From TrEMBL:
It comes from the Bacteria. InterPro entries: VCA0040-like. The chain crosses the membrane at residues 15-38, 59-77, 83-106, 118-136, 148-169, 200-221, 253-274. PANTHER family: INTEGRAL MEMBRANE PROTEIN, POLYPRENYL-PHOSPHATE TRANSPORTER. Keywords: Membrane, Transmembrane, Transmembrane helix. The lineage of its organism: Bacteria, Pseudomonadati, Spirochaetota, Spirochaetia, Spirochaetales. Pfam families: VCA0040-like. It comes from Spirochaeta africana (strain ATCC 700263 / DSM 8902 / Z-7692). This is Putative membrane protein.
Amino acid sequence: MHKQPLSVLVLLKGMAIGVANIIPGVSGGTIAVITGLYDELMEAFGAFFSSEGGWRRNLLFLLPVILGVVIGSVAFARVIGGLLAAVPVQTNLFFIGLIVGSMPYLAGKARSEAFSPWCIAAFAVGIGLVLWMGLAERPTASPPITELSLLAFGAMFAASIVASFALVVPGISGSFVLLLLGMYTTMQTAFGTMNWPLVAVFVFGHIFGIVLVARFITYLLQRFHSPTYFAIIGLVLGSIVSLWEPIPLDMTGLTGAVAALLGAVLSAVLGTGTKERLVARLGKGRRRER
């Protein structure tokens, strides 16, 4: 069951996810975790076709999220691009602050069950995976596929399913996954030239992969909640490596520290009962108006 009662609040969270997708080193999944939307997104995607009438309920929840992602990506593309060009240190430190500030909230969710060695192992795997992806040398791009054959269809569809992990799992770079699979140039060329048959394969492969991965993660959250959340914490913390900028000891460093503090405070507020109190107040206001 979805607990988000306000479509406006869900829309704003979707916008935050869309903004995150623009920033190199930040994944939408990371922001979904920080804003408390992750579990419900996994449930909605994973159960989309699982029960009679379930797709309608899940669609009503997902539409504001998807709309928010589109609005955030389109409306803030130039803004984020300008900030990264003009004040890269401050911008990246703000998002590092968001990640660090979310840790108490995430740790609280992870500690809902008894701590075990599996939690440590899951955390190590999560942070190790993101550190490897952030520090590893990028593989050489393969020549693009421009014509759709049965073999090309199978390779592209399979690569899209694997790459969809990046849209669902926090901290994972989709472009890096596609590079490893030799499909990054093909996807870039397909969308750049609007090669619709190839675009369709990538889109449907990602949709199928998202539903598949979301079901798996929902299963893990239900059966192995604490280890799964410790893995998520590792994935989210590992994202800091991709965002880290050398901090100069001047006004840039000072304003960067302020930006990091603002990000941490904002994230900490999002992880407390502030959201629930805001929703309750807005709900009371609506009832009074009636």
